């Protein structure tokens, strides 16, 4: 709410004057200010916005896992089961009140879809999609879960791609752009 009020008043949200004697605001990764799920705070009352952001994030997690299941050639039923299990897993449900974790983890299935498409179709546009999705996960606000996702993605590529040259190329084309795309918050 403070983020959008500062933007409305024409101020860059670099400093939070309300906490203590002031604290970094945009630079605090844990706040997840740049998460796309925060758009609801611009549109609704804060409690309604929180509810919408949680429901949309959990639903997106299910949709993403269903899509990933279909991408790896699971049947519709199996992909639906995978989506329901992921949506209502402990990693998602226990963190519905910790939106930083939820807003970070929800991007994992979409990332897996992009990585799988990159490996299967060998088109570098999917590496860019991976970079964008990783950046959105970074903007979610929980650096530890983002770190887990990065490690998981690294090993997923390492064990899925066939040639070493491909592995190195995919890893470089995915992870290097993330630094540039997330520079608004990193620096």
In short:
The protein has 187 residues and is mainly α. It is built from eleven helices and two strands; from the N terminus they run αββαααααααααα.
Describe what you observe in this structure.
- It contains 11 helices and 2 strands; from the N terminus they run H-E-E-H-H-H-H-H-H-H-H-H-H.
- The chain is mainly alpha-helical and 187 residues long.
- It has a two-stranded antiparallel ribbon with strand order 1-2.
- The model has no long low-confidence stretch (mean pLDDT 92).
Question: Which structural traits does this protein have?
Answer:
187 residues; two-stranded antiparallel ribbon; 11 helices; mainly alpha; single chain
The chain-level mean pLDDT equals 92
The shape, in one word, is globular
Give the helices and strands as they follow along the chain. Answer: HEEHHHHHHHHHH
- Assembly type: single chain
Helical coverage, percent range? 55-70%
Strand segment count? 2
Radius of gyration: 18 Å
List the strand order in the largest sheet: 1-2
Number of contiguous helices: 11
- Low-confidence parts lasting 5 or more residues at pLDDT below 50? none
Amino-to-carboxy terminus distance: 23 Å
Q: How much of the sequence is in beta strands?
A: under 5%
Secondary-structure-derived class: mainly alpha
Major beta sheet summary: 2 strands, antiparallel
């Amino acid at each position: 709410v403070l983020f959008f009020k500062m933007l409305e008043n024409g101020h860059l949200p670099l400093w939070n004057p309300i906490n203590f004697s002031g604290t970094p605001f945009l630079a605090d990764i844990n706040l997840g200010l740049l998460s796309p799920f925060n758009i609801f705070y611009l549109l609704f009352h804060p409690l309604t916005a929180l509810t919408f952001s949680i429901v949309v994030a959990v639903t997106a997690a299910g949709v993403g896992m269903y899509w990933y299941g279909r991408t790896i050639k699971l049947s519709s039923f199996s992909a639906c089961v995978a989506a329901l299990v992921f949506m209502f897993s402990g990693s998602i449900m226990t963190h519905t009140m910790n939106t930083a974790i939820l807003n970070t983890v929800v991007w994992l299935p979409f990332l897996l879809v992009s990585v799988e498409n990159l490996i299967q179709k060998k088109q570098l546009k999917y590496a860019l999609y991976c970079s964008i999705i990783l950046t959105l996960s970074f903007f979610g606000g929980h650096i530890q879960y983002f770190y887990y996702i990065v490690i998981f993605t690294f090993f997923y590529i390492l064990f899925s791609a066939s040639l070493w040259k491909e592995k190195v190329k995919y890893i470089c084309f995915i992870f290097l752009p993330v630094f540039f795309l997330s520079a608004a918050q990193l620096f």
